[in-house]
Amino acid sequence: MWWCCRWFMPVNILLTFIIGSVLAWILIKITRTPPHLQGLVIGCCSAGNLGNLLLIIVPAVCNESNSPFGDSTVCSSYGMAYASLSMAVGAIYIWTYVYIIMRIYADNSAENTENVSIADSESYTEALLPSSEKSSCHDHSELPETMSEGKVTFMERTFWNFKKFAANTNLKKVFAPATIAAMFGFLIGTISPIRKVIIGDSAPLRVLESSASLLGQASIPCMALIMGSNLLKGLRRSEINVSVIAGIVVVRNFFLPLIGIGIVKAAHHFGLVGSDSLYQFILLLQYALPPAMAIGVMAQLFKAGESECSVIMLWCYVLAAFSLTLWSTFYMWLLG
Questions:
Q1: Structure pTM?
Q2: Above 80 in pLDDT, residue 288?
Q3: DSSP characters for 31-56?
């Protein structure tokens, strides 16, 4: 019964990523964002902090004396389950969807910079080489012989493209620890025999659940401290345009929450979401969260907009302290 209509949460999170990406693309066109920052803008607008912030906000709301979500114990239990599901699904989307987008933009920016820097040297070198050596510089040795001659089947081209993609993709970074943990969590939660062995007061291996719970409770304040220390880097100067920062703040704090209200209400109207007000509250909150801190990690991995990312995160989280309070209050009034 708990999973009735809960399938909509992964869809809802995917919609936040897609809608945020569309709004980011519009923002890039309006502000004429430099190419090396376009992937960062898309990442900040599409990926929200679906993990530790919900784990902090939801119990605090449930423990309020005038909470509209009923008994605090039941509310906290279900709320933590919803927040954990949000964190797991969000981690998968962030380290697949956003990671690939930011890598593509970072690679394209690096290639354009290299092409500009070596274009003159290549032309100068070709002018000094004999004609026979010039042709050898532009051969297609890395392609299969049949492809270089123009004789290639669809299967050969598909296999070669897949091989090239696999060679250019660092699977160790795509399958980050958070993604692997989310996958294991789904397996344990959805496969009944495994769940009965690990989860529950009478489970034979319930010590594993207790240990994971203790580590998880300690990780929440640790993540908050790490997040705060990362925001301090945003006090440094950066060359990012103020209009880009303002655009990201408006997208995440105004447009996405408004669109989210329409989506969740429409889903409830068509029976895609049940009448559980706490569940609807978390679905709405997923549109109002500031950018995920994993975006900063990706910016460091790709060395694209590291200082700019710190500035964006600083302003987004400072203003999120006010916007999240306002939106949470409005959502509770709307659902009450």
A1: 0.73
A2: yes
A3: HT--HHHHHHHHHHHH-B--SHHHHH
